[in-house]
Specification:
Strand order of the largest sheet of chain A: 2-1-3-4
Largest interface: B-C, 40 and 43 residues
Helix content of chain C: 25-40%
Largest sheet of chain C: 8 strands, mixed
Number of strands of chain C: 12
Largest sheet of chain A: 4 strands, parallel
Oligomer: heterotrimer
Structural class of chain C: alpha+beta
Radius of gyration of chain C: 22 Å
Order of helices and strands of chain C: EHEEHEEEHHEEEHEHHHHEEHHHH
Chains: A alpha/beta, B alpha/beta, C alpha+beta
Strand content of chain A: 15-25%
Structural class of chain A: alpha/beta
Number of domains of chain A: 1
Chain lengths: 145, 320, 347
């Protein structure tokens, strides 16, 4: 398949790490509320946004993700009191660092989505998917074997 | 230089004789001019083999991890950068300060053998010494004198802590602190376009031979079991392919975020000259910008930026 | 003998690259390694040794040899298409040519390693060393810095030109129809090359004479060497990294692993290092080389004792000096030879 063809047929693969207590419930609400969002998103449920190791994000890119989203409770709302505060620092630094080694910032996003924000979840996933559709497939970090 | 060597030998002999320490970590000299290596001295009579010359670059503090299992008290010599590494081990609770006796060595910079070679001064070279403000290269029949500034390790040119920040006894007068801007190379890379930067790092990481020297030499790498050695789950495969190399280098650098003391040992030992310092310094620079200045290895009691937080922290990922 | 003016080399390379993949020592970000030549590449024939030896061309650091896929009825295997086409290796130093000879003993003897055999078909143009480095000690192993008998073509650097001598059928074949680039060398030039060869060998031998003597010692005391004190002291400072083994032109240990994704994957072999703790780690958790002492001893004993015992006296070291130069803590095989060889006096 040529690059042009690939771009044309391109369906982004978005991996979203969602915290169990807020963002995953938010995704659930989007579903039960019948809000539509792109089927390009693959959700991985994690206990807390701070459970997400940078390795998870790198591994997702290695195995073919075009973008990675980490979603957690709003600051102050963490089920474990401070997990998302730690995640905020960690991923602020990581996002800049990935950009430094050449990964576009559009491909790695962090969002706070509460259990009641089904609409926000759907809107973010649509927004990310649209952006990646324009940006095209990611080949950086990908293990091409 | 000679005076310092005498002090090193004298202190080593004295702590071994008095029983204050049962092991002294210093440097010994090999037959070739650049070979100054970690030496383990247990007998007073062996202290004459200790050396101090412009190539005593290996940091001795990481050996404490193993030696303190069997030794009661270890005395060691630490230069400025080494002391930062020692403090990092202290912060990571990997060494017991009570079991260590530190002799601080103020250091005005060490000599990079590669720079000597590039200047074509290496053929037939016997030894290199600081004398006054000059660097003296000794050959079989003659000597050459050069300005040392063009031979220092890059990491020494940007050194901000040439005087050890932790010691029990300082072996010399403090040296002047006059570092070059350490974030210059990072700044240059930041100016590039993101794809250009990707190609730059792609080239660097492709050259990696996966020897793990950068990890093994690092004073902030002291995990008993390293993620890169795990076979189940196999986070890092053994194939030398770009993707695995990228995974290795990004993870290594990020694991050091907020804990890297910027001693530059990783870049020094890299056999294929990957500019690892730029990765570490990018993280130092960003963390300083986002969460306030933090100098790893200087104040081990202060929490590193990534294991703490402030409710009012900026969310830098909202920037595009 | 023939010669080629240095100024004509880029034209020659262009010519050679048309018929085969041409590898030369190229400078990338200040690091010189063998890489495929392209017009405008930064060739460096002056630095003695490349950082990584050319062994990675015949024995790549990672090499996939079979793909597998779970089909409905069975697991399907497809051998990886072996690389085709000839290649030329230009500017290999004599020690590295000797390194390939060592690898040949491992991979080309029974059982034959077809992956290696397939990659070993290249034509080798060796470049004599006029001025060996202080860390060079090839003469310890009866090799010459100025001559590589196993090369297809031998080159000597005469300053303005390279002297060119074909030494094998492949070398003769390559030399034919090259009159555009090559001219006849004068008797004087041949004599100069001969002289350079002698002085280079003498200069290096003078520095390592003590080791040659000690090497006999190593042979005599192989058993005693195993229990020598030196392993304790050397391993104490060893960082346990793999630099020495990966920059070595003769180290050839490898591991086999699978990379799989879903229903398909591939099996590859890749360099492994006896300096890593998982090198001998068994599934049960048992490790016959539990500490750095056993690992450091293994590396040196393999090169100096086990390998020659098994391969008719051929040592598993060619004295290129890479490990001596690159070891971050100056662990030096020449010191091992001297110390261990010195045992003969004590034994």
């Amino acid at each position: 398949m040529s690059v042009v063809e690939e771009h044309h047929l391109f369906e982004p693969m978005i991996v979203a790490f969602c915290c169990n207590w807020c963002s995953y419930a938010g995704a659930d609400l989007a579903g039960t509320g019948r809000m539509s969002y792109p089927a390009n998103v693959r959700i991985v449920r994690v206990p807390c946004s701070s459970r997400v190791s940078p390795n998870f994000i790198l591994r997702a890119f290695q195995r073919g993700a075009d973008a990675v989203v980490v979603a957690g409770c709003h600051p102050g709302d963490c089920h474990y009191v401070s997990g998302n505060y730690h995640a905020r620092r960690r991923f602020s630094a990581l996002r800049r660092f990935l950009e430094f080694v050449g990964i576009e910032t559009e491909r790695f996003e962090i969002h706070w989505i509460s259990a009641s924000e089904g609409n926000k979840f759907a809107a973010i996933m649509k927004d990310v998917t649209d952006k990646i559709r324009v940006l095209g497939p990611n080949r950086k970090l990908r293990d091409v074997r | 230089m000679k005076a310092m060597l005498q002090k090193i030998r004298k202190e080593a002999a004295s702590v071994l004789a008095s029983g204050e320490a049962d092991l002294v970590l210093g440097w010994g000299k090999g037959p070739l001019w650049w070979q100054s290596y970690p030496a383990f001295i247990e007998e007073e009579k062996e202290t004459g083999s200790l050396t101090w010359d412009p190539f005593c670059v290996p940091n001795l503090s990481k050996y404490l991890l193993e030696e303190l299992w069997v030794k009661q008290k270890v005395a060691l010599f630490l230069k400025g950068c080494d002391a930062l590494g020692f403090n990092q081990l202290l912060q990571d609770k990997r060494v017991d300060r009570e079991k260590v006796l530190i002799f601080g060595i103020p250091c005005s910079g060490l000599i990079d053998p590669q720079k000597v070679e590039r200047a074509g001064l290496h053929q037939g070279l016997h030894s290199v010494e600081h004398q006054g403000g000059e660097l003296v290269f000794s050959y079989k029949d003659d000597q050459k004198k050069e300005d040392p500034s063009s031979f220092y390790y890059d990491k020494c040119l940007t050194c901000r802590h040439p005087n050890p920040v932790v010691f029990d006894m300082m072996l010399g007068d403090a040296v002047a602190v006059n570092p070059q801007e350490r974030f210059a190379a990072v700044g240059e890379l930041e100016k590039q376009d993101v794809s250009e930067r990707y190609r730059y790092w792609e080239r660097q990481f492709s050259r990696c031979i996966r020897c793990f020297a950068c990890r093994n030499v690092c004073p902030a790498c002291s995990c008993r079991e390293c993620i890169f050695d795990l076979t189940d789950p196999r986070w890092l495969g053994k194939a030398n392919v770009l993707s695995e190399n990228q995974f290795y280098h990004i993870t290594r650098a990020f694991h050091m975020a907020g804990r890297c003391v910027d001693c530059g040992e990783c870049a020094r030992v890299c056999p294929v000259d990957i500019p690892l310092t730029s990765l570490n310094r990018k993280l130092i620079k960003d963390l300083n910008e986002l969460y306030g200045e933090y100098d790893a290895g200087v104040e081990p009691e202060k929490e590193p930026p990534l294991i703490t937080f402030n409710p009012g922290d900026p969310a830098a990922f909202l920037e595009s | 003998m023939k010669k080629i003016k240095k100024g004509d080399l880029p034209l020659l390379w262009e010519h050679l690259a048309r018929g085969a993949l041409l590898y030369l020592p190229l400078n990338e970000d200040g690091v010189v390694n063998f890489a495929p030549w392209q017009k405008g590449a930064r060739v460096n024939l002056d630095s003695l040794n490349t950082v990584v030896p050319p062994k990675n061309l015949v024995f790549p650091q990672s090499e996939t040899y079979v793909h597998f896929e779970q089909k409905a009825d069975a697991l399907d295997f497809t051998p990886v298409q072996e690389p085709k086409g000839d290649y030329i290796l230009f500017g290999v130093r004599p020690c590295d040519v000797a390194g390939l000879t060592v690898l040949d003993r491992v991979f080309l003897e029974d059982p034959l390693d077809s992956l290696y055999e397939n990659r070993r078909r290249g034509t080798i143009l060796a470049l004599a060393c006029n001025e060996p480095d202080q860390s060079c000690f090839c003469t310890t192993f009866d090799l010459e810095p100025g001559f590589a008998p196993a090369a297809d073509i031998m080159l000597w650097d005469l300053g303005e030109a390279l002297l060119w001598q074909a030494q094998s059928a492949k070398g003769v074949a390559l030399t034919q129809n090259m009159d555009v680039y090559l001219s006849e060398a004068t008797a004087q030039e041949e004599k100069t090359a001969e002289q350079l060869q002698v002085t280079a060998a003498a200069a290096e031998a003078a520095a390592v004479r003590e080791q040659e003597w000690a090497l006999d010692g190593v042979k005599a005391v192989a058993k005693e060497m195993f229990d020598a004190q030196i392993w304790e002291s050397l391993s104490r400072r060893c960082l346990g990294c793999g630099i020495c083994t990966y920059v070595c032109p003769t180290c050839h240990c490898f591991d086999i692993e699978d990379f799989s994704r879903g229903e398909q994957g591939e099996r590859f072999r890749c360099w492994d290092s006896c300096m890593f703790k998982d090198f001998t780690l068994m599934a049960s958790g048992e490790n016959p080389r539990p500490s750095r002492k056993e690992r450091v001893r293994q590396r040196f004993m393999h090169k100096l004792s086990y390998f020659p015992a098994r391969h008719g006296g051929l040592h598993g070291c060619v004295g290129c000096g890479r490990c001596v130069r690159k070891c971050p803590v100056s662990i030096d095989i020449t010191q091992v030879i001297k110390e261990a060889g010195g045992l003969i006096n004590r034994a």
